[in-house]
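Students often ask why we bother predicting the structure of a whole assembly rather than each chain alone. The short answer is interfaces. A chain on its own may look different once its partners are present, and contacts between molecules only exist in the joint model. In this exercise we take two input lines together and write out one structure for the complete complex. Read the inputs first and try to guess which parts will touch.
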Amino acid sequence: MLEVRGIKKTFNAGTPNEVRALQGVDLGIEDGSFVVVIGTNGSGKSTLLNAVAGTFIVDAGSISIGGRDVTHWPEHRRAQLIGRVFQNPFSGTAPEMSIAENIALAARRGQRRGLGWALRSDVMEAMRDRVHRLGMGLEDRLDNPIGTLSGGQRQALTLLMATWLKPHLLLLDEHTAALDPKTADQVIHVSEEVITRDKLTTLMVTHSMHQAANLGDRLIMMYQGRIIHDLAGAEKQRARVEDLLARFEDVRRREQLDESAAEMLRRAYV
Amino acid sequence: MTLLIGALTIGLILSLLALGVFISFRVFDFPDITADGSTTLGASIAAIMLVNGVSPLLATAAGACGGVLAGATTGVLHTKFKINGLLAGILVMTALYSINLHVMGRSNVPLLAVPSLATQAEHLAGWLLGGTSDLDVLGWEVAIRDAAVLMLMGGVVALAGALLYAFFRTNLGTAMRATGNNAQMIRALGVNVGNMTIVGLAVSNGLIALAGALLAQYQGFADVQMGIGMVVWGLASVIIGEALVGTTALGLVIVGAVMGSVLFRLLIAIALRAGLNPNDLKLITALFVFVALVLPNLLTRLRRRPG
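Now the answer. The structure tokens for the assembled complex follow.
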């Protein structure tokens, strides 16, 4: 479904602020697979997601989704294949527009938008039904501006919008990081439900070891713009929070070693 | 009475300008200065066509189309050539000054002797009322020309407002509102934000040029200077309108912009009659917008201060 081949991305190239965010990432995801991505801050996990979404064009390598080479497609064109939920609950919805209007916008993701009414009665009907199934009591507030809702409600609606038309690929970018633990659980529950029901191919970035251990059928760990661990099948199912933390500790030690080694060399030779 | 009707008529004509400014400043959050040039462009195209005997309806429509082109140009400069939005508007506005002079061939085209929408409305009303030249409204003498033009402008504005409201509820229109409200979100839903901005600015400046074309026909001339300060004028109307309706509901905001424009024009008419120097008009308009922009923040800061 998703084929990422040797992608590289350097931000602010040639300046003191140069960041080599992706240094050659290869990743193939099968149809219907649910892949969780973890990594320390600056490991490139969100950058990987943004590269796939088309927020920027990669410097090298190729990306294809569902057999189509999208490497040079602009972000809005890739949207016909991709559903996205962002880390910031404010990013995924238009606050001054009503819940109904936001969903109506998502109901035409990647399609032509003409002069037909946005809130047609059949769309409204489907909306009431699917919003009701979120179990948040929002089906009676479809006319309210979405900006009046809580972060959790907005994330749940963004998820509904991203999956309203079944996407070839669902991208979840730390979509519960800005929520309180209870709401985060709720949103994760809704996510799991829709991913399982619609058999969605999913790439999810998370900072929560708990989510990483319990969700998905494959786990990827990134470090310094590369994939350093890739657990699938039984190995993924066996992985516990402690194992993951141990691997993080491993990475941390390696980082310290790098620094102390550099310091030692500096003292010896400079 | 003539003063009141004059103020109402100009207020209604300029409410089309307010609606245009509402689209660029509020819907798209885009400070579009093109408006100063497209007002005059609409006026000069309509004027030169009227002088050459083209039907008033066609001339007015052509004026509006000129605005559509001007707005689209600003949009292309901004989205395709990545020029700062404010600068893109200034470039097009500056270029339009020369273009307007070329369109008119001189700096001022009088329209008093040619048939226009204003004279047509007068004829129609005269025919409907059987040839009287004055009308009795609640004991006031009203010239039939004034009444007819006021009715015409009321009709045009009502139609434009209703069309705009309907448009913003279509698939294309909602995508456009979302572009201004949250570009990241609408891009993720497959909308080309650049193209939306171009279309939005085209619609905005089309309305503004329509206001210019109607204004020229009402006041009886087109002048190359007539667009100066129109953006600020429109912004003042929108701000007053928002204060009047006190909501962000789409329909009410559109009605508010029209009411704001009429009210602002009335206030100005009264101030002028009370002895305000016409030369100070733009200064006062600018000061008004400045105060309206600063006051809300200032009030909340004062309120938050303890004691």
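Check your guess against this: The first helix of chain A runs from residue 45 to 53.
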